[in-house]
Amino acid sequence: MYIFIVNPNSRSGMGSRIWNTVEPVLNERNIRYRVFFTKYQRHAVKLVREITSDGQAHTIIVLGGDGTVNEVVNGIADLSKTTLGYIPTGSSNDFARSLCIPTDPLTALDNILRPSRYLSVNIGILTYNNKNGVKKRRFAVSTGMGFDACICHEAMISHVKVLLNKLRLGKLTYVGIALRQLLTLTPCQVTVTLDDSRRISFDRAYFATAMNFKYEGGGFKFCPDADCCDGLLDIIVISNLSKLKILTLLPTAYNGWHTRFKGVYTYTCRKAEFKSAAPLPVHTDGEPIYKQTQLTLSLEQEKLRVIAMP
């Protein structure tokens, strides 16, 4: 049986309309399924935790955006007993973009119902502190602090995003917010420690991010060599550049060409620690977390089986 987790409000209500095109196909094909609709933030975490806590194997299909994927991943009780399928309906769809999952919902559904390829995908873990102590949160695509997290925080409350989503131009939300945030952001000192051994300090860092997939923020190819199955995190830090230089480099990130320029630093590791001189916004798969000065990033031992394209 397929378990569908549907975010009806993804892409400003498009998720509900897309489900209404998917469900008749399931019924026509006599597919056994159950559907759960998310009603509030982090509802998918609760739903999936209840579903997967029985110790049985489950196939969970997400119909939503990267944020819904993040919530579902955080709710899975046992990664090794779960298969994940995805019908992308979000604004950025970086999870789908990295896995070449089609944005056409019926094409994505057909691939789920007749799968010919699976990937064993790494799932990341972000560890940080809040007023209640140490917190852990999984991520599928990426997590980071600074500039990219500022974009995610603003995008969550952007009225422009709602309008652009309705025009099917949601990707432009992130471009516009990125330009505005770049003008107002103040870089600060960030120290990155790789695998508990290599320590690197950056005096004027704009952001530090750990990537499990190649893309973030609606198509920015921040880590072109990232491989979600290789057991490694790809780290990118932007530092010691003028805002004008970053502005000229930003468009090149769509093709991954930004990594050729001075001031763009990339690394691979199994574990990383970020420390900043001042509290910075943090995100996991675009979902905001309160400002932090220290993050620890690693990977789950178990991988998640994901239905991929042939």
Tags for this model:
alpha+beta, six-stranded mixed beta sheet, 9 helices, globular, 310 residues, nine-stranded antiparallel beta sheet
Question: How is the topology of this model organized?
Answer:
Layout: E1 2-6, H1 10-28, E2 33-37, H2 43-52, E3 58-64, H3 66-75, E4 82-88, H4 94-99, H5 105-113, E5 118-121, E6 124-130, E7 133-139, E8 142-146, H6 147-156, H7 159-166, H8 171-184, E9 188-194, E10 198-211, E11 233-239, H9 243-249, E12 264-269, E13 272-284, E14 287-299, E15 304-307
Parallel strand pairs: 1-2, 1-3, 3-4, 4-15
Antiparallel strand pairs: 5-15, 6-7, 6-14, 8-10, 8-13, 9-10, 9-13, 10-11, 11-12, 13-14
Helix pairs in contact: 2-3, 6-8, 7-8
Describe the protein in words:
The protein is an alpha+beta fold. It is built from nine helices and 15 strands. It has helices spanning 10-28, 43-52, 66-75, 94-99, 105-113, 147-156, 159-166, 171-184, 243-249, and strands spanning 2-6, 33-37, 58-64, 82-88, 118-121, 124-130, 133-139, 142-146, 188-194, 198-211, 233-239, 264-269, 272-284, 287-299, 304-307. Strands 6, 7, 8, 9, 10, 11, 12, 13 and 14 form a nine-stranded antiparallel beta sheet that branches. Strand 9 (188-194) and strand 10 form a beta hairpin. Helix 2 (43-52) packs parallel to helix 3. The longest helix is centred in the N-terminal third of the chain and has 19 residues, at 10-28. The radius of gyration is 19 Å and the shape is globular. The protein starts with a strand and ends with a strand. The model is unreliable at 157-165 (pLDDT under 50).
